[in-house]
Amino acid sequence: MARTQNSAAKPAKEPGRLKQMYQVFQMTRRQDSTAIWWMALAFFAPILVGIVVGYLLSGGTALGFALWIVAGVLGGVLLFLIVLGRRAEKAAYAQIEGQPGAVGAVLKSSLRRGWTASEMPVAVSPKTQDAIYRAVGNGGVVLIGEGPRSRTQKMLDEERRRVNRILPNVAVNFLQVGPDEDSVPLHKLAGRMARFKRSLNKAEVYAVSNRLSSLGKNQLPIPKGIDPMNARAPRPR
Asked: What is the pLDDT of residues 23-74, one digit of tens each?
């Protein structure tokens, strides 16, 4: 009886690494029809190179030729995993793009070194759920509008005035994530932030981030950011 209770109390075993990779592959293939061709190219191209180089440089020895093929296979596996990871990330972001909190998910999981941000917006429209996010890094302060530019531009300008009141000498940049043609795609947001001209050092980033915290937290009830690695969108509370 005790053994039965102990076995029933054990948590469900998590899927193994290979099964997890297969699940990620299936999710990516469903979301991105071209991903399988890129992954196939990434796997077979190094093998082909290994065969050609081995034929030319092995000197006719079977061992040398085999070693070049093995090196090509290992290189193919490595490139396959790299392409799978990038395509899976892009597919995951595509599933949440356009939903409230999507920018927060990027800021939480994909910010590059030297940047700080919160997954919670600093301003939000209760009617449209358009939101403004704020990040601080060596490029200064970046305000990110989530939603159509026609609705978020006024919110961005208001937030910039708030920042300028307490940090008049710090650069404030705008980025837009939304349906507009010139908006930044969600999966490119972190990379686009890193392109701003360097204006703050590490100590200044820390000081600016602490100073901005004095602006206070948003008082509106807003949902947390969406986890980009979760294939399903979160259910509304």
From this structure: 777 777 777 788 889 999 999 999 999 999 988 887 778 888 899 999 999 9
Distance CA 102, CA 91 (A): 13
Q: Give the whole-angstrom CA distance, residue 88 versus residue 90.
A: 5
Is residue 106 a contact partner of residue 190, using CB atoms and an 8 Å limit?
yes
**Phi, psi (degrees; rounded to nearest 5) at 229:** -90, 0
Asked if residue 25 lies in contact with residue 84, where contact means CB atoms within 8 angstroms, the answer is yes
**pTM reported for the whole predicted model:** 0.65
116 strand-pairing partners: 136
H/E segment holding residue 144:
strand 140-146
Residue 20 token pair: 């997890």
- Residue 195 and residue 163 in contact, taking contact as beta carbons nearer than 8 Å: no
What three-state secondary structure class fits 175? strand
